[in-house]
Specification:
alpha/beta; Rossmann fold; 2 domains; four-stranded antiparallel sheet; binds adenosine-5'-triphosphate; ATP binding; transport; AAA+_ATPase; ABC_AA/LPS_Transport
């Protein structure tokens, strides 16, 4: 038995290595009408790390993301956040445990500015909805926090421009501000650099590094430059199963991983 297989009954939310696990899946499976999209996946995301989920098309990455955030329910297996079992919970309940996610599809309002987007997000989160009778003091608090968040994603100079006028990479940065406005401890980013040119990709790498400080991040990305630049740990999925895991350098040298990607190229 090697070290990875040896389970010495660590405390809940803790690994035998002493590292704290922020998000964990055990034996997670998902069937879609008899088709097993995710098969018996074990995943430990260490607190404070950036963890990449990669794999060829159809490997099950999005399904796993949807399971971890409650958008779909597992057929079997368990999910824990900071040691707490959240299996079968609704997305809002999982968000309440500190897990937030971004989506590939953009959901911004063209006529609202970045500052307004974030302010509305903060108000909605506080449970006030669009209540316009909030006190000036409360509104000022939202304004200050919104400005901080807009600044954190590098959009200060564009804070008062309608979002419709922002470039694609800037819109994605604004979405990032909306996700971190939820104050998550665990952040799941679905293809943060999808559809971006090299310049935006590099800016997004820096942005993710910035917002990962003090948080745990899991992301899916097809761009190996992004994975290699960001990830402390990589899990490779293939046909719904974990094919390999380890550092970027370890998994990229793994013959099974090379074969999986070569297979994808020859199918293209
Ligand atoms: N709602 C669904 N009903 C039936 N099959 C599904 C459903 N969602 C996903 N699948 C199937 O499950 C498998 C895994 O899909 P998934 O979208 O999770 O892969 P992925 O790794 O995210 O792929 P990509 O990189 O292309 O986004 C695919 O074969 C897909 O067709």
């Amino acid at each position: 038995m090697n070290a990875a297989e040896h389970h010495d009954a660590p405390q809940q939310g803790e690994r035998s290595t002493g590292q704290t696990v922020a998000l964990s899946a055990k034996g997670l499976s998902k069937d879609f009408r008899g088709f097993r999209a995710v098969n018996n996946v074990d995943l430990d995301v260490v607190e404070g790390q950036i963890h990449a989920l990669v794999g060829p098309n159809g490997a099950g990455k999005t399904t796993l993301f949807n399971l971890l955030t409650g958008y779909i329910k597992p057929t079997s297996g368990t999910i824990t956040v900071h040691g707490k079992d959240i299996t079968g919970r609704e997305p809002e309940q999982i968000a309440h445990e500190g897990v937030a996610r971004s989506f590939q599809i953009t959901s911004l309002f063209d006529n609202l500015t970045p500052r307004e987007h974030v302010e509305l997000g903060l108000q909605g989160m506080a449970g006030g909805g669009m209540r316009f009778w909030r006190s000036d003091k409360q509104l000022r608090q939202y304004r200050e926090r919104a400005d901080q968040l807009v600044d954190e994603v590098g959009l200060s100079a564009l804070a008062d421009r309608p979002a419709g006028e922002l470039a694609y990479g800037q819109k994605r940065a604004l979405e990032m501000a909306l996700v971190i406005s939820l104050d998550p401890t665990v952040l799941l980013l679905d293809e943060p650099t999808a559809g971006m040119g090299r310049e935006d990709v590099d800016r997004t790498i820096e942005l993710v590094q910035q917002i990962a400080k003090g948080r745990t991040v899991v992301f899916v990305d097809h761009n190996m430059h992004v994975v290699g630049s960001l990830a402390h740990h990589v899990t490779v999925l293939m046909a719904g199963e974990v094919l390999a895991r380890g550092t970027y350098e370890t998994v990229r040298a793994d013959q099974r991983v090379i074969n999986a990607y070569l297979g994808e190229e020859s199918n293209a």
